[in-house]
Specification:
Layout: H1 2-16, H2 20-23, E1 36-38, E2 55-58, H3 84-109, H4 118-121, E3 127-128, E4 131-133, E5 146-149, E6 155-159, E7 166-169, E8 175-177, E9 185-189, H5 191-196, E10 206-208, E11 220-227, E12 234-235, E13 254-255, H6 256-266
Antiparallel strand pairs: 1-2, 2-4, 3-11, 4-11, 5-10, 6-9, 6-11, 7-8, 7-10, 12-13
């Protein structure tokens, strides 16, 4: 519901307004950004020379199977914003349920059983990521708020960002601006689903550019939900996505956790 989204956003905005030294207390050293706070100037889009102009927080799955404990550490919560935990977990749960419904629809589209993804994502290492893009105060920064990239996971659900800047790369190779309506949830396909479907479902290349003029002086807030499979799920090309016209591009299977770690190194989080 909109109230649930607004409540979560209000808590996230309150956290990002805290002094930097307090926020940095929630940075988990050596944790690859898996939980808690990642400060400004760390994440860098793959193959980019410049870090992204953003800081963010990671909320993971709260009810965890012990066998995934190493891949899925416990959550961290900021005591300065007491409502942060409950509001973040409520939004996480709602988007996790919606994401499962989206995957059921995609399974049917791919000619798979409707519940194909259910037991492959029920302990998924999914992440809710509140992001703060601070105001840009000079005109000549080479960095952008988020460089061109594809998401790592299966699908991403994005609930209304607070300012313009999101652009999606079209099949013609043109950047198309996208502004979410207040009650719209954007769904992106990520690289894990692209790999699983042998590019039948291609991942969405997108970026967040710095808006022009005075609009760049405004902060931007965004909260994507990255839906991941269970860490031990083996990403192996689906047989019905291989044909004479589309031979398998990925003969070597890889676990979801192995793939995630490989990609985190590329974007400077590991």
């Amino acid at each position: 519901s909109q109230d649930l989204i607004d409540g979560a956003y209000n808590a996230f905005v309150r956290f990002f307004a805290l002094p930097t030294d307090i926020k940095k207390q929630y940075h988990v050293a050596g944790g690859g950004g898996a939980r808690g706070y990642t400060p400004f100037g760390v994440e860098t889009a793959k193959d980019s020379k410049y870090f992204d102009l953003k800081e963010f927080w990671h909320v993971g799955r709260e009810v965890r199977d012990e066998k995934y404990a190493e891949a899925m550490p416990a959550n961290v919560w900021p005591t300065e914003v007491p409502e942060f935990r409950d509001r973040a977990l409520a939004l996480y749960g709602a988007l996790d349920a919606l994401g499962s419904r989206m995957l059921s629809a995609l399974a049917l589209h791919l000619g798979l059983p409707e519940r194909f993804f259910a037991d492959k994502t029920n302990n998924g290492n999914s992440i809710l990521r509140p992001i703060h893009y601070p105001p840009i105060t000079t005109d000549d920064v080479p960095n952008v708020r988020a460089g061109a990239h594809e998401d790592i996971n299966l699908i991403t659900l994005l609930v209304g960002a607070s300012a313009e800047g999101l652009q999606v790369l079209s099949r013609k190779g043109e950047w198309v601006p996208y502004t979410a309506e207040a009650d719209t949830i954007v769904v992106n396909i990520g690289d894990m689903l692209q790999r699983l479907t042998n590019h039948v479902l291609p991942s969405t290349t997108h970026r967040v550019v710095n808006p022009p003029g005075e609009k760049a002086r405004q902060p931007r807030y965004s909260t994507p939900f990255f839906l991941h499979p269970n860490p031990d799920f083996v990403i192996d090309v689906l047989p019905n996505c291989v044909s004479a016209d589309n031979p398998s591009r990925y003969p070597e299977p890889i676990t979801a956790q192995g793939y995630l770690e490989e990609r985190l190194r590329e974007i400077k989080l590991k």
